[in-house]
Amino acid sequence: MPSGYSKKGGRWVKEKTEKSFDYDAINRQSAGFMISFFRWYPDYFADLCRSEDARYRLELPQRMMLRIIARYRNVYITGVRGLTKTYCLLLGRMIKGIFWPGVVMRYCAPNLKQAAALATQAFHQIERDYPIIASHWQIKHDAQDSFLITTPYGSEFGMYSPRGDNNSETDAEEIGQEGSDPFDMRRYEEDVLPACRLVRMAANGVPDPFCIQQQHIHISNACRKQNPAFYKHRAACLKEMQVGEPYEGYVIDLSWKTALLCNIRNIAYVKDQRSRLTEAAWKREMCGLYTGDSENPLIPDEKLTISRRNLLMEASHSGDPHAIYIVSHDVSYADDPKNAKCADVVLKLTLFEDVERRDKYRKQVVFVDN
Known about the structure:
A hairpin with a 2-residue loop joins strand 5 (138-143) and strand 6. The protein has an eight-stranded mixed β-sheet, with helices on both faces. The protein has a three-stranded antiparallel β-sheet with strand order 11-12-13, with no helix packed on it. Strands 1-2 form a two-stranded antiparallel sheet. The model is unreliable at 293-298 and 308-312 (pLDDT under 50). The chain has helices at residues 23-40, 42-49, 60-71, 85-99, 112-129, 131-134, 185-192, 228-243, 256-261, 267-276, 279-285, 301-309, and strands spanning 4-6, 11-13, 74-79, 104-108, 138-143, 146-150, 156-159, 169-173, 215-220, 249-254, 324-331, 342-351, 361-369. By secondary structure, the chain is α/β, with parallel strands linked by helices.
């Protein structure tokens, strides 16, 4: 409608009005930008939410672990004792559950009691250090052998359930643990990994192209090289890191020097561990080195099984007059369900035929009986 008559122009004209500013649109854009930023840099979001009474302050290795967990699909982190691996894993998962509603994460450890104890302890510490982050999560189960937290928007973080469960991400804590209480690799490979089949959907009903789908996180101390955690799961992540698609795999090994230089642990702690641990345990638990151990066989059980099945071992002398056979009897005093206690091994030594190695022997295991 005309709003006024202009004597100068001799006609009716409309008055100019200022167009209202759409603050809602600007807020939506800003919120979307902040969410995408914190998805990529979860440590910065944790800094904003950190309490004044927080016991931990994120250092460089912890920030690296949080960003690696947030960005890559297949991750294997070898961390030494005292690096707060469980704390960083749970903190990163809780942040992801906030910014990626609907993700279902399953947590595995060597046994149910250890898994529940580690997760419960880490959650209550995060509840103290980052109360804003913890306020988005509600504890559904917190028992001796069960732990489950959820958000009102459908995200879950809990211990693995029996065969038939569905999840979108798996976390294997201490996957390389050996000894009297080893990691249950069979259950992890047969029940947990096949259940990782959920796909997070976007608002338009198609798979979210920005979400890392079906993610697998492995975090542990180092172990012997005959452990499947090393030659199977870590090797797969390393292969994806070297020749896979971008952000498909990442492997990192952190030693005690990293924890010391970044003020996560002091020199007194390192000295105590050095005096207490054996040489092999020190290399694995504090140096992040994958090595053998005198209590474990030097040959993987899978190789021995294949050798016996294919009859590659010698039952009698080969007839070579230059061959040397060494018969050894190994007795172990360690009481372990997987320890044979004793074993008879025959090593065959034969001279190399080439000139460069004419004074060296080829060593072959031709017989094993436990």
